[in-house]
Amino acid sequence: MSSRDPHTPGPGPVAALRRIAFLMERRREETRRIEAFRNAARTILPLPDEEVRARSEAGTLTELSGIGPSTAAVITQACRGEVPERLVSLEKTSGPLAEGGRELRALLRGDLHSHSDWSDGGSPIEEMAMTAMELGHDYLVLTDHSPRLRVANGLSAERLTRQLGVVEAVNAHLGGEFTLLKGIEVDVLDDGSLDQTDEMLAQLQVRVASVHSKLRMDAAPMTRRMIEAVRNPFTNVLGHCTGRLVTGNRGLRPQSQFDARAVFEACAEHDVAVEINSRPERRDPPTGLIELARDIGCVFSIDSDSHAPGQLDMVDHGCERAEAAGIDPDRIVNTWPVERLLAWADKR
Ligand SMILES: [Zn+2]
Ligand SMILES: [Zn+2]
């Protein structure tokens, strides 16, 4: 069910509803409208096929909670073995999100930065994992926020411990071909320390460290702060390093001021990947800084930073930028097989 695969006719009703939600999300349609399709999928998932078919023939699907006229139409058409009209029209938009970067995109095996509804994402962990698997990824790192980011419902050590149990349960169901990896997007505190205990960080497999507060700090203390975070032996990826916002409904934000050469030299020395954040409103780092990190010899990770399943495809944008900057795919850590990635991420 990848956006790149030719569409196979006649998906079942649950698959059709999920695929519609995914494609709407990719087009950045309104969350409330998208959720209607996911809710409908959840409603019919536990029902026997015969009941769904009988209700669709009798026109009584809308008696079920969570199913309205448009979701009922999709279910009815799928039950007849047709590709629902809604899906046919959305599939026309399912091509790559960016013009360039296709060769690099084909080499990506995973994504190191994603959020679930445990912090500020919109979907359950398993929905994120299933969609990443359907996109052809071998792995996805779940990186919900750390405690201090209260606005994003950051996870305490206790909640993160519970989440790790859920990650293990999801992996047990997925049967080994795809791995959901244990991770965090940990806040870089004002002094450069990380917003989670060492005991907890040690239980994770990949850690993205990001600055989310005091973005307007003076260049000298900001540089010290970022280098301190990069030198922390738990840090694997420096997330959206400038914090800028270039478009979108969250408004605009200038990039943080810091000595980028010093920070990227620290990344190269400590084998920390510079993230190419694929979100269109971030485009972080700016092109000049991607080129600087390239020339210094850093490794990179091209991340979606997705907060919903349909956003997992945004890596298309990051691939376009990395390819334009001429970055060798072998220096992009998420082109690596999972074993190599995990060996790189474990610095102990
Ligand atoms: Zn972030
Ligand atoms: Zn994030």
What can you see in these coordinates?
42% of the residues lie in helices and 9% in strands. It contains 14 helices and 7 strands. A 7-stranded parallel beta sheet has the order 1-2-3-4-5-6-7. Helix 8 (157-174) links the parallel strand 2 and strand 3 (179-187). It is elongated and about 70 Å long. Mean pLDDT is 94; it is low at 1-7. It binds zinc ion (2 copies). One zinc ion binds at residues 113, 115, 185, 305.
Shape: elongated
Q: And the CATH topology of the largest domain?
A: TIM Barrel
Small-molecule binders = zinc ion
Largest sheet: 7 strands, parallel
Pfam families: HHH_8, PHP
Domain Polymerase/histidinol phosphatase N-terminal: 110-190
Protein name: PHP domain-containing protein
InterPro entries: DNA_pol_lamdba_lyase_dom_sf, HHH_MUS81, PHP_dom, PHP_phosphatase, Pol/His_phosphatase_N, Pol/histidinol_Pase-like, PolX_PHP, UCP036978_PHPhdr
